[in-house]
Amino acid sequence: MTTRRLRTTAARLLAAWLVVLALVGSSVALFPAVAEVARSTWADVLALTRPIGLLTMSDGYTQVAAIALVLAPLLPLAAVATGFRRRRALLRVAAVLGVVAVVVLTAATAGGAVPVRARLTSLTVAVAVGLALGALVSATLRPLLGAHPAGTPGPATRRLAVRSALGYGAFVALVAFTSRPVDSEVTPLLIRVLDRLHAIGFPAWMSYSAVEFTANIVFFVPVGLIVVLLVGLRRWWWGAVAGFVISGSVELGQLLFLPDRFASLDDLLANTTGALLGALVGVVMLGRLTARRDRP
After folding, report:
1. CA–CA distance, 201 with 194 (Å, rounded to integer)
2. What pTM was computed for the model?
3. What is the pLDDT of residues 28-40, one digit of tens each?
4. pLDDT tens by residue, 146-168
5. To which H or E segment does residue 129 belong?
6. Rounded CA gap, 150 and 278, in Å?
């Protein structure tokens, strides 16, 4: 696909995405029945996944994640449509869209049992995460679609990645295959901190399970990053695959050999997500290193 055609396609997709978001947002805000149908549909989806140990976090956490994923494509599509120019203008537009999204979604969910402060906090987090994901994907697309799509790491980068792989691999094995969960000592303290945060108005979905799921995402970010620094830009997706394979092996090992540990699909999902995010970060880093190395 030519550059002009790619930009045109991205512009059309962006326009369509904005129209859909505007229609859905206005419908949910103006017609409470639509919001109720959306909530009940999401609850039905969770009712199907939770018996198998998937998406067992609170409803609020999954809703925040869903909103973030819906908003994430906006910046990448805008970046491709503008040829990765006008970065500051895109950021300003993203900020405006974020504020509008928070206001609209807050109005759409008004009247429920959730306090206004908690609802506003949840939506602000969702929009911020969605725009941050979009910014990361935008930064990733530039080297993949630019002049160095087949960029390979230099010898120094590869040596650093190998050493990091050995060190972090040992750390992952230590954390994953200890007989007791590594967070067992800090769990009571964490629960007390969360209780105090809830007492001052933080959303109830910011619970121990949410912290654990998020920590599992962060835990595997270095996996994807290291893999990309080893294999190069062309095979960036190997980072996510590596995260899935390693996490699956860990969960299987815990299931078979560690009765005090709990294997779950949520851990597999979180770890794979973290590895994917790490791979995207690796693409950005390696793209910049490659461009700097090849600069005349």
Report:
1. 11
2. 0.90
3. 777 778 878 888 8
4. 654 557 788 888 999 999 999 99
5. helix 116-145
6. 19
